[in-house]
Amino acid sequence: MTDTVLARSRPRVPPLTPGRDRRALRTACVAVLAALAFGALLPLSPLTAVGALVVIPLAFGAPVAALSLMLAITVLVPFEVQDQFSAVGGSGRPGLLLVDVLLLLGLGRIAWLMLSRRLALDGPLLAATAVVLVLAVALAWGIAHGAAVSEAGHETRRVLLGVGAFMLAWPLVHDPAARRRLEAALVALGLALGVWGLVQWGFSIDYTSAADVGIRRGVDLTTSGRGSLQGGLYAYPLAVTLTWAVLVSGRVRSAPVRRLLVAIVCLNAVCLWLTYERTFWLATAVACTAVVVLSGAHARRIALRWAPIGAVGLLAFLAALAPGEIRTALERLLSVNRLEIDNSYEWRVIESRLVLDEIRERPLTGSGFGATLTWGKDDTFATMTTPFAHNGYLWLAWKIGVPAAAFLALVIVAAVVRRGPPEEEWRTHTLRIGSRAALLALLLTNVTFPAFDALGITAVTGLLVAVCLSGGRAPAPARPPSPPRPPAPGQATAPARPR
User: Fold this and answer.
1) Which listed site, 111, 207, 371, 495, has its alpha carbon 20 to 30 Å from 5?
2) Which DSSP symbol is given to 17?
């Protein structure tokens, strides 16, 4: 009798389902991994050990937040600051940045999903995996031919972030809820980018050796000009293009959201102006025009109505804030007719010829990451040894070979020309149009600036490629879901939910 009463008084614990089993196993594995990392790193660096307790659960438990954090760090945080807070090494020594850790953990999560047969290794993921292997070979090839380990690692990181971000984003862009969170993260990043650019200009932050932050003194081929804004250089055209696509869609009904988007466009347009880089101006204009063409007649009417007003407002704002900058911009724009005295043009011509010579020597394998050129010109350019080249396509072919470089470039071209399904929801459709146009801007930029070699934009590029190539069916699991377990003896079965 007593046993019967005790049995009735015990709370009933529902049996674990297969889904609960897997979630519990994943949680336990992540907890064990975080604890092991904390214990191993605590004697070496207490700060890094505490960071591991945050980053590891974030990468495995909140993939959208982890990817958004990686994008924000690469776009906004200067390399020298990232290097100071490296998880391993740093301050001039080979090591792992926080974005490296986020990338490796995220790829570990993708591998776990594949091994547990919850994510199929489809064509895009298989191709990305093959590219990762090619990049690893290019790293080893460059070091084997005498490249500095640190420089070879930096170059590998920049390209790998793009491929890795694509792999992390690929399952997320097929999940509507995750895609909404990514859209919100991009809006926040666009606002932060515009504010950060004006902060650099307003406080005259010094230009650094990494060339990714601050004001570079002087503007070529102008009689005035305080300097050119460098921090966020590659990201401003993308922020303007993506936000412009949302505005001309005419589908945003909330007035506060519209005002926020207008603020993002204006802030980033001002920052883009202050870069005084003609290539980026042209690429942004082409991308915004492409957005209007791809978005249809309604977008053309909105653009014709508001673009002139926005341009006049922007000019008025700059005239009031910094009247000398308008003159500098006009002189810089008109300098395209003075190529015979443009040192930057002559520099690129000589540099490109020398890189082509290097490509002809190793067209299939490339020279490997970290490979350098030594060149100069009497009375014009001092002799230097550099791993850098301004033409992004030539730089990539020089490092990893013509076939691999051509494949990566063609993937981006395929992303630009790919259309989504006709029944696509308007938010996804608008993001796709903006992403296609933004990638078009990057393709144009690579002619004179190496976007493939820019830490501040490669991860964003990977995300945009994933957005453009998605749109079909979501990546299927490698196996069908397991059938539900039969109810335990004495347990009533729940009625089926109506569909």
Assistant:
1) 495
2) P
3-state DSSP of 440-499: HHHHHHCCCCCHHHCCCCHHHHHHHHHHHHCCCCCCCCCCCCCCCCCCCCCCCCCCCCCC
Encoded tokens for 375: 């060149």
pTM for the predicted model, two decimal places: 0.88
Tokens 């990566």, residue? Answer: 408
Taking only the tens place, the pLDDT of each residue in 434-491 is 999 999 999 999 999 999 999 999 999 999 999 999 975 555 554 444 555 555 555 4
- Gap between the Cα atoms of 369 and 395, Å rounded: 10
pLDDT-derived band at 50, boundaries 50, 70, 90: low
How many beta carbons lie within 10 A of that of residue 25, not counting itself? 11
- What is the pLDDT at residue 60? 86
Write the burial class of residue 222 (CB in 10 Å: 0-12 exposed, 13-18 middle, 19+ buried): middle
DSSP string, 153-213: HHHHHHHHHHHHHHHHHHHHHTSHHHHHHHHHHHHHHHHHHHHHHHHHHHTTPBP-TTSSS
CA distance 256 to 245: 17
Tell me the pairing of strands 88-90 and 93-96: antiparallel
DSSP codes of every residue in 273-287: HHH--HHHHHHHHHH
DSSP string, 336-386: GG-GGG-HHHHHHHHHHHHHHHHHHHSTTT-S-TT--EEEEETTTEEEEEE
> Collapsing DSSP states into helix, strand and coil, what is residue 435?
helix
Rounded to the nearest 10°, the torsion over CA 79, 431, 111, 131 is: -70
Question: Residue 45 class from Cβ within 10 Å (0-12 exposed, 13-18 middle, 19+ buried)?
Answer: middle
Helix (H) or strand (E) holding 91: none
Selection from 258, 260, 244, 207 nearest residue 229 by Cα:
207
What's the CA gap between 198 and 211, in Å, rounded? Answer: 17
Other C-beta atoms within 10 Å of 7: how many?
Answer: 8
Q: How far is it, in rounded angstroms, from Cα 333 to Cα 149?
A: 40
HSE-CB at 114 with a 13 A cutoff on CA atoms is 16
Which range among 11-15, 39-43, 137-141, 183-187 shows the weakest confidence by mean pLDDT?
11-15
162 closest CA partner among 416, 414, 411, 440: 411
Query: How distant is the alpha carbon of residue 425 from its chain centre?
Result: 24
Please state the length of the chain: 499
Distance CA 238, CA 438 (A): 5
Element at 94 (helix H, strand E): strand 93-96
- List, as one string, the DSSP characters of 304-334: HHHHHHHHHHHHHHHHHH-HHHHHHHHHHHH
